[in-house]
Amino acid sequence: MSKYHNIIKYPSITEKNTNLRSDQNKFVFEVATSATKGEIKEAIQHLFSVDVEAINTMVVKGKKKRTGRNVGYRPDWKKAIVKLKAGQNIASFGEV
């Protein structure tokens, strides 16, 4: 497995993210928590052969979960919103 696959874990496909894709040409990925914007840009360009215009990242905090009387937390994860240049698209991204 290449280093790019370690940076980009998988695409996030939700109704809200699908609307972002169709309206603003933005794609959402779950990425490694240690990944920088430069590494994410390089990985997206290499894996999908597209030109990245902008990247916004955020760390999503894990939710509190209970199992009976035991309390725990889901792990934190990092989300990257990638805007592609006009006219470009990632083929078969979340299509059914």
Quick gist of this model?
The protein has 96 residues and is of the alpha+beta class.
Relevant terms:
96 residues; alpha+beta; Alpha-Beta Plaits; two-stranded antiparallel ribbon; 3 helices; 6 strands; 28% helix; globular
Descriptive report:
The strands form 2 sheets. A 4-stranded antiparallel β-sheet has the order 1-2-6-3. The chain is built from 3 helices and 6 strands, in the order αβαβαββββ. The chain is α+β, with helices and mostly antiparallel strands and 96 residues long.
Strand arrangement in the largest pleated sheet: 1-2-6-3
What's the β-strand tally? 6
Give the overall shape, derived from the CA principal axes.
globular
> What is the C-level CATH assignment?
Alpha Beta
Question: How many DSSP H or I helices?
Answer: 3
Q: Unreliable stretches, pLDDT < 50, 5 or more residues? A: none
SS strand fraction = 35-45%
Order of helices and strands: HEHEHEEEE
CATH topology: Alpha-Beta Plaits
What's the topology here?
Elements: H1 3-7, E1 8-11, H2 15-24, E2 26-31, H3 37-48, E3 52-60, E4 64-67, E5 70-73, E6 77-84
Antiparallel strand pairs: 1-2, 2-6, 3-6, 4-5
